[in-house]
């Protein structure tokens, strides 16, 4: 099980961090800017979240677009490795947390928003 989870993590992380995730350049730019402003953060389930619970419609649409792409990656990873999509997302989140620059927000599973 651990081996499958590690394989799932490697596959999901490489896809989530690369061009394989269906996202537009505009969505990525909007989310990157919102992360830098503390509006959007990474969550322990591998998806993006709104730190204050709301954002302008452009940012919200960009978050939704990227999260849809991530969901597809996690589902594909689960099908290929035998772990759940949720496990693939959580494994990816741990690596995303580690790569976050200082000052960016993250929220572990079951926890609150924390600034790195």
Task: Give an overview of the whole structure.
- The chain has 116 residues and is of the alpha+beta class.
- It has one domain (2-115).
- Helix content is 58%, strand content 10%.
- The protein contains four helices and four strands; from the N terminus they run ααββααββ.
- A four-stranded mixed β-sheet has the order 2-1-3-4.
- Strand 1 and strand 2 (48-50) form a beta hairpin.
- It is globular and about 35 Å long.
- The termini are far apart.
Topology as a string of helices (H) and strands (E)? HHEEHHEE
Q: Low-confidence segments, ≥5 residues, pLDDT <50?
A: none
> What percent of the residues sit in helical stretches (DSSP H or I)?
55-70%
Total helices: the number is: 4
Structural class: alpha+beta
The rough form would be described as globular
* Integer count of domains: 1
The mean pLDDT is: 88
- Number of distinct beta strands: 4
Describe the sheet with the most strands. Answer: 4 strands, mixed
Tell me the quaternary state: single chain
**Gyration radius, in Å:** 14 Å
Q: Provide the β-strand percentage band.
A: 5-15%
